[in-house]
Amino acid sequence: IDALKQTLLQLAVMGKLVPQDPRDEPVESLLQRRGIKSKPHALQGWGAAPLGQLGEILGGSTPSKANAEFWNGDIPWVSPKDMKRPVIHDSEDHISAKALAETSLKAVPAKSLLMVVRGMILVHSFPVALTAREVTINQDMKALVPPEEISAYLLMYLQATKAVMVGLVDRSSHGTCKLISEKLWSHIVCLPPLPEQHRIVAKVDQLLGLCDQLKTRLTQARQLNEQLASTLVEQAVA
After folding, report:
1. Count of beta carbons in the 10 Å neighbourhood of residue 186
2. Between 153 and which of 34, 44, 97, 197 could a Cys-Cys bridge form, CB atoms 3.0 to 4.6 Å apart?
């Protein structure tokens, strides 16, 4: 089921899940209004631009642990351990407004993309998520603040290209994994017209929901089979 999900995501960003509509305004027009330069794409109305040009790039840091006043607030401080879901509503650790005001930390607004760029998780995965509220991040992560209209599609795009991103990761001689900024932000993203983005995201949400239902039913069926087998064995040896 997980492989099926990944295939659906890949088909989505290739423009093969929903039909193109010639009446859609080309995405280049939207990007130009936002001051973003893009190039035409082979698919009608699509455009292509480096990931780093699609929004403001923000980094993270760790406030001094010696200052307890930095860690007694309610502002989420997101680290890789929190990146287990596609939308971030909260985090395990929190910092205070004092930490935000007196350190190099920057507030990351809602509808921003968070990405893990350092850590052993990058050996096999590329954790990415969308913020549901304002957060801060640690130094093992980067944030991209794109136009809100394209944030949901960008999340889906980065989920679909997980294998590509993992392929960009550098490993040091002692095993540390890092996705350097030059490689990450120069990655070319293909964007469909905005109405098509919305249709694609809606279709993907629908299909992934069906996949989750199927996975649940398969799990329930397996558990039932195990219970039946256990019952039969108990009756056979009774």
Report:
1. 12
2. 197
Q: 60, 143 in Cβ contact below 8 A? A: yes
> Which of 18-27, 152-161, 186-195, 208-217 has the least mean pLDDT?
208-217
Contact indicator for 154, 70 with CB cutoff of 8 Å: no
First-to-last CA distance in the chain? 38
pLDDT of residue 224: 78
Based on its alpha-carbon atoms, the radius of gyration of the chain, rounded to whole angstroms, reads 21
Cα distance between residue 229 and residue 238, in whole Å: 14
Separation of alpha carbons 45 and 33, rounded Å: 15
Q: Are 78 and 137 within 8 A, CB to CB?
A: yes
Span 150-205, pLDDT tens digits: 999 999 999 999 999 999 999 877 778 999 999 999 999 999 999 999 999 999 99
pLDDT at 116 exceeding the cut of 80: yes
Under 8 Å between Cβ of 143 and 78: no
